[in-house]
């Protein structure tokens, strides 16, 4: 996906590889910072770093050539939509309870207490444990249907 994003935004495969290498260096540097806390999947974090690095590269190129900088544009939205569709499709394939927990937590921003109450769990810890298992199930489902290459190319 990262390569597609760069190619769709006036880049080449070689530039995508360079950006990816630069992103890995950024991750490496951030990982050594005591304040660093990874709050998403590593692949998501790397992808966002690649987006930011590519945006900076496009701005640098536009200054050198005098062109207008390229906006995020349609292709950025398509990549984002493509990822969302993959995740939504996999969420739909989960059981009803998992679907509700993940939707309530990630899309409706409900607290674990609210989710526990809404779904009739004994307490927030039970809901938290179930959410963890549902996330694992979703992760396994995505991994079984897609490879890392699907997200990087």
From TrEMBL:
It comes from the Bacteria. The keyword Zinc does not apply. InterPro entries: RNA_pol_sigma-70-like, RNA_pol_sigma-70_dom, RNA_pol_sigma_r2, RNA_pol_sigma_r3/r4-like, WH-like_DNA-bd_sf. One of its GO terms (biological process) is DNA-templated transcription initiation. Keywords: DNA-binding, Sigma factor, Stress response, Transcription, Transcription regulation. GO terms for molecular function: DNA binding; sigma factor activity. NCBIfam families: sigma70-ECF. Belongs to the sigma-70 factor family. ECF subfamily. This is Heat shock and oxidative stress RNA polymerase sigma-E factor. It comes from Sporocytophaga myxococcoides. The lineage of its organism: Bacteria, Pseudomonadati, Bacteroidota, Cytophagia, Cytophagales.
